[in-house]
Amino acid sequence: MVAAPGYDALAFGSLHDARYDSVGRRLATASSDGVVRIWCTESHQMVAQLPAHQAAALVVGWAPKKTLPVQLVSGAADGSIVLWREQGEWSSVHRLTVRGSVVAASFRPAEYGLMLAVAGSESPDICFLTRKEVSASAVLPAGEQWLSKPMEAHSAGLVGFCWAPAASPATLAAGPAAARAAARAPLRLVSASSDRSVRIWRGDEKSDTWSLQHELVERGPGPPVRDVAWRPNLGIPSSSIAVCFEDGLVQIWWQDMEGQPWSVQSSWSVGEETFRLTWSTAGSLLAVSGPEQSLLFKESAGQWAQACQLYDS
């Protein structure tokens, strides 16, 4: 469960997910009654209800503003996934189903173009969806199609995944090196499975294929992995990924620069079961959510200390 301070979202049952749009003007929430609700962030008033699912809505995500016309995705405990568009009124533009409950559904950063990735708890695959415009024919009118391509990421069902930020490592650089650098970082994502493995993948945009780059946590004995979250950055060459485990252990994995090995930079225990990880937009705060509360941690001199505690009501 997650908290949405200042909103009456909990009046509609357990709140499983809450996400702001790319400009922070609207908040989408996913509730146990299967309904996705849209809230105005200025007034904290509900402005739309989307009767999305027959089972509890578990995840919701906004598309980047630059990749319209699709604007929202929602997923539920019965594996149903709905893509939404707002044109005066909200309407569904595509539906699909994954095996098990939906554990993740998110659009990649806008710099790479429109693509949606989804995953279910009983499938080892991450499914990538792309949109294609279809010309009118003798039997079908003009419209759009959503093409689906699965990638086997693990040997068991997934528990989560996260796209890497698109900011180029040269964003903060200057001089000739900056002029020669790529405008964006390589396309990457991190995935985690119920078999305890955590893997980093790199995508080839030309061939539309994925290759395994690193294995952070290998299959084997130990507490199951619950979630992974790639830390946003502002163009620095290093990368960080947070991993949390069922027993409350949180790890921060760090890579000095692309192509270098990954290692555990910091680890600590929150003392209770963990469900979800969320970074702040600037990557300065990490929220670790459990069954009854969310703990906010902040980094100082390479060490992570608790900054705030939020209780679900």
From TrEMBL:
<feature type="repeat" description="WD">
    <location>
        <begin position="24"/>
        <end position="49"/>
    </location>
</feature>
<feature type="repeat" description="WD">
    <location>
        <begin position="50"/>
        <end position="84"/>
    </location>
</feature>
<dbReference type="InterPro" id="IPR036322">
    <property type="entry name" value="WD40_repeat_dom_sf"/>
</dbReference>
<dbReference type="GO" id="GO:0005198">
    <property type="term" value="F:structural molecule activity"/>
</dbReference>
<keyword id="KW-0677">Repeat</keyword>
<comment type="similarity">
    <text>Belongs to the WD repeat SEC13 family.</text>
</comment>
<keyword id="KW-0906">Nuclear pore complex</keyword>
<dbReference type="InterPro" id="IPR001680">
    <property type="entry name" value="WD40_rpt"/>
</dbReference>
<dbReference type="GO" id="GO:0030127">
    <property type="term" value="C:COPII vesicle coat"/>
</dbReference>
<dbReference type="GO" id="GO:0051028">
    <property type="term" value="P:mRNA transport"/>
</dbReference>
<protein>
    <submittedName>
        <fullName>Sec13 protein</fullName>
    </submittedName>
</protein>
<dbReference type="GO" id="GO:0090114">
    <property type="term" value="P:COPII-coated vesicle budding"/>
</dbReference>
<keyword id="KW-0539">Nucleus</keyword>
<dbReference type="InterPro" id="IPR037363">
    <property type="entry name" value="Sec13/Seh1_fam"/>
</dbReference>
<dbReference type="GO" id="GO:0006606">
    <property type="term" value="P:protein import into nucleus"/>
</dbReference>
<dbReference type="InterPro" id="IPR015943">
    <property type="entry name" value="WD40/YVTN_repeat-like_dom_sf"/>
</dbReference>
<keyword id="KW-0813">Transport</keyword>
<keyword id="KW-0811">Translocation</keyword>
<dbReference type="GO" id="GO:0031080">
    <property type="term" value="C:nuclear pore outer ring"/>
</dbReference>
<keyword id="KW-0853">WD repeat</keyword>
<keyword id="KW-0653">Protein transport</keyword>
<keyword id="KW-0509">mRNA transport</keyword>
<dbReference type="Pfam" id="PF00400">
    <property type="entry name" value="WD40"/>
</dbReference>
